[in-house]
Write a structure and sequence with these properties.
With about 475 residues, the chain is α+β, with helices and mostly antiparallel strands. It is about 60% helix and about 10% strand. Strands 1-2-3-4 form a 4-stranded antiparallel sheet, with no helix packed on it.
Length: about 475
């Protein structure tokens, strides 16, 4: 009857404990932020999927550079190893809540003092008529041989171990999306640098054409000076303009080397020339991309997915920190063979076993648990803020790139008209100068303005491409 009451009391205590539930501090089934339906008044909401790398970048040379970078990039390789670290955490967490079993063999011995309970008791035992020769205790040093199994099992009453598994899984998935984020940024960086190379090639051609034109004008002025129709000032000014263009050419060559080195570094190799086709800048057409709808960012942007999973991990950590204040229920067991004589160790009579259960709860010194709970709560709130920040930042980036694409298109149209006008002014000023109806200053001004406008136009072209690539990255492209 007494045992029945004890069992009933224990069951009621465990039932009372299980009735206590740890509630999360942030609702899990509610959206954290509500985004608007569209990015801008003119954004396209028909696109659902982000194009793959091969589809979006039709240039085979660029695709080959990206493929090499995805294999050899240092940052991406580090991100992959972080995934492996998180995978190890998953493997470790799978063992939580499962009984631990270990096997062991041990040999030792001890000698008790003659004036101790054990020493006197062992001595008296030798004279007992209830023991045989096998049970005789060696004196004075008593060996101890053990061969057996030990097991320990913590029963997950509050879900603490389950929350640790959830945290490990969330961190593993978060590391996967962290790798995807590195890949997205890598693809965008290579595309930007590659397109800038194509633009710099064309800018170099512009400078060479203008250098030839300026050299021709300088030769004319020198001839006219000899004929007494011009002076040394005109020669010096035209020469200075020619030197300025030559210096710009050197600078552009340096920028080409820097961009090639940048691409090579992203590809994980030493500096070397980048073989690439040569396109006329008018034929370098940026790919087109629709923005889709803002809700698509939640599934396509790796940084948002990463922040969301990190928040889930922090929620699980907070749950674990709260559960640490509750009692833990452990069961320990052992089974094996134990003897103080080696020859008797495998004797069936040497069998030994034990079973014990414990219910332990922190009572007196809980400052460490309170500090851990405080830190977990702050980290969870930080993760919550980081998630909100990621969503707002993603929306802002797409919003800005959409407007940038539109404004660059307007600027490009105006700059094209400006370039055509200034190109015509070069021929007109040269003809007028030859006939004596224009000064060399007007020729210099026309050439300088035309060169500057061409450089500005080609830079607008570069900005157009960079904006489209930026939109591709902002929408979460480049990792699927």
């Amino acid at each position: 009857m007494f045992r029945y009451k004890k069992g009933l009391l224990f069951a009621l205590v465990m039932l009372g404990f299980s009735a206590c539930k740890i509630k999360p501090e942030i609702p899990q089934n509610k959206p954290l932020l509500v985004a608007s339906n569209t990015f801008t008044n003119y954004s396209d909401s028909t696109q659902k999927d982000i194009p793959s790398i091969g589809t979006f970048f039709a240039d085979t040379t660029l695709s080959a550079l990206i493929d090499t970078a995805l294999q050899n990039n240092f940052d991406l390789q580090v991100a992959i190893q972080r995934v492996e670290v998180a995978r190890a955490g998953i493997r470790f967490s799978r063992g939580l809540g499962i009984p631990e079993v270990s096997a062991g063999v041990s040999a030792g011995g001890r000698k008790f003092g003659n004036y101790t309970i054990d020493g006197v008791g062992n001595y008296d035992t030798q004279f007992s008529t209830n023991i045989n020769d096998k049970q005789s205790i060696p004196q004075p040093f008593i060996p101890d041989y053990l061969l057996g199994l030990q097991s320990s099992w913590e029963i997950d009453v509050w879900g603490k171990l389950k929350s640790q598994k959830k945290a490990a899984l969330a961190r593993f998935l978060s590391s996967e999306f962290g790798k995807n984020l590195v890949q997205t940024q890598l693809v965008a960086e290579i595309a930007d640098a590659y397109f800038e190379l194509l633009i710099l090639d064309n800018e170099l051609d512009f400078l060479e054409e203008n250098i030839k034109l300026q050299q021709f004008s300088l030769d004319i002025v020198r001839v006219m000076k000899q004929a007494g129709e011009a002076n040394q000032l005109g020669v010096e000014l035209l020469k200075a303009q020619l030197l300025s263009s030559a210096a710009m050419k050197v600078e552009v060559n340096q920028q080409i080397i820097q961009n090639e080195s940048r691409i090579n570094f992203l590809m994980g190799r030493y500096p070397q020339p980048i073989r690439r086709p040569k396109f006329a800048w008018e034929k370098v057409i940026p790919p087109t991309l629709s923005a889709g709808i803002p809700s698509g960012l939640l599934t396509n942007r790796p940084d948002i997915r990463q922040a969301e999973l990190e928040l889930q991990a922090r929620n699980a950590d907070l749950f674990t920190a709260k559960a640490a204040f509750y009692p833990s229920f452990n069961i320990n067991a052992n089974l094996g063979l134990q003897s103080f004589k080696a020859l008797l160790l495998l004797n069936p009579a040497s069998a030994a076993y034990g079973l014990a259960g414990s219910l332990m709860a922190p009572i007196a010194n809980r400052r460490a648990l309170a500090a851990d709970l405080m830190a977990s709560r702050a980290e969870q709130k930080t993760a919550y803020i980081d998630y909100q920040k990621s969503v707002v930042n993603a929306f802002t980036e797409v919003y800005n790139y959409l407007y940038l694409i539109k404004t660059n298109a307007d600027i490009y149209k105006l700059k094209s008209e400006e370039v055509n006008t200034l190109k015509n002014s070069i021929g007109i000023s040269t003809d007028l100068f030859r006939s004596g109806r224009a000064t060399y200053l007007e020729v210099i001004t026309a050439q300088k303005n035309a060169l500057q406008s061409q450089i500005e136009l080609i830079n607008v072209k570069k900005k157009q491409y960079n904006a489209v690539v930026g939109l591709y990255r902002a929408l979460g492209g480049g990792w699927k």
